[in-house]
Protein: ADIPO protein
Amino acid sequence: MRGLAGFLLCWLLLLAPHSTGVAAQETQPDPKMPCANWMGGAPGYPGHNGTPGRDGKDGRDGLKGDKGDEGPQGPKGEPGPVGSRGFPGPPGSPGTPGTPGQNGRDAFVHRSAFSVGLTERSPAPNVPIRFSKIFYNEQGHYDPSTGKFLCNVPGTYYFAYHLTVYLSDVKVSLFRKDKAVIFTYDQFQSNNVDQASGSVLLHLSSGDEVWLQVYGEGDKNGLYADNLNDSTFMGFLLYPDPENY
Ligand SMILES: [Ca+2]
Structure:
């Protein structure tokens, strides 16, 4: 009895507010309305989310983008290492000729020579013999009026004499500055013609005089002379002193 009463009560409660539309609901009940399917249970809870699906395939490449703007110029780099040495260059062209040098000293000042001959027989003794025939006296350093050679160029000189001796002995000396340097003596042989010769190297200073002189007491010395130039006297500068160059 009690079950049936409850059922009826519920039925009345549900029917009362909708009494005017009962006919339509009875023919096609709405499943969404509560209590419409009053014979079923309450709706269940929503199910859990399913597992994620697998990743899809990669898409095709997109179109190439436009070229970007040009960037600003970077800072200047460090200098590179020094390169290797190059090959030698070709020889240069000849230089311009230099200016002419100064004129040298006239070599004439370093010349001194003479060659003379005797023209008078038996010259006076104890004084310079005067050789008056001139073969060579370009510089005039020999004085035929005195028979003396005067040194003008300091240096070393060579002197020589070749004398013909006839009829009597001859003794001569070559003098330098009033002093006899060498002697030559020839003893005459009868019926003959002799020769007396001498030569010497001397160093002379400017102003030194050189000459030949006959020793004797009379005027009849055997020093002979004629037009064949038998007796001669000569001298020349072999080389001047270095300070004269
Ligand atoms: Ca002799």
Remarks:
- Residues 16-26 have pLDDT under 50 and may be disordered.
- The radius of gyration is 79 Å.
- The chain has two helices and eleven strands.
- The CA atoms of residues 199 and 220 lie 25 Å apart.
